């Protein structure tokens, strides 16, 4: 059985996350989400990602990934983490820094 993964954010760093799955039979990159449709479609085609979404909650509710890669600017971390936990995501991989302020770090700690 493979872990079903998804990525939020299709900027330059997301390619590194997606490429890490090459050759891993236990992991499958099943879905991607980005508000920029052109960037999203380019990633879908380049990395053969079958399910593409512009809305994170829609992706989480339909795809139910085991793992979510959050590859967004640091000021957009709490909401995706909160949504992921509500939809039963078992693992969240986040780009660094995980938080920019103590209040943001405390919110993330609450979510965890």
* CATH homologous group name: NAD(P)-binding Rossmann-like Domain
Rg, rounded, reads 13 Å
**How are the strands of the largest sheet arranged?**
3-2-1-4-5
Name the helix and strand elements from N-terminus to C-terminus, one letter apiece: EHEHEHEHEH
Q: Low-confidence segments, ≥5 residues, pLDDT <50?
A: none
Helix/strand-derived class? alpha/beta
Q: Write down how many β-strands occur, each being a DSSP E stretch of 2 or more residues.
A: 5
CATH architecture: 3-Layer(aba) Sandwich
Work out the count of structural domains: 1
For the sheet with most strands, the description reads: 5 strands, parallel
Helix content: 25-40%
Overall average residue pLDDT:
93
CATH fold label: Rossmann fold
Q: Tell me what portion of residues adopts beta-strand conformation.
A: 15-25%
How far apart, in Å, are the first and last alpha carbons? 26 Å
Please state the overall shape, judged from the principal axes of the Cα atoms. Answer: globular
Count of helical stretches: 5
CATH C-level category: Alpha Beta
Please characterize this protein's 3D structure.
The structure is a single chain. The protein is α/β, with parallel strands linked by helices. The chain has one domain (3-111): Rossmann fold. Helix content is 39%, strand content 21%. It is built from 5 helices and 5 strands, in the order βαβαβαβαβα. The protein has a 5-stranded parallel sheet, with helices on both faces. Helix 4 links the parallel strand 4 and strand 5. It starts with a strand and ends with a helix. The mean pLDDT is 93.
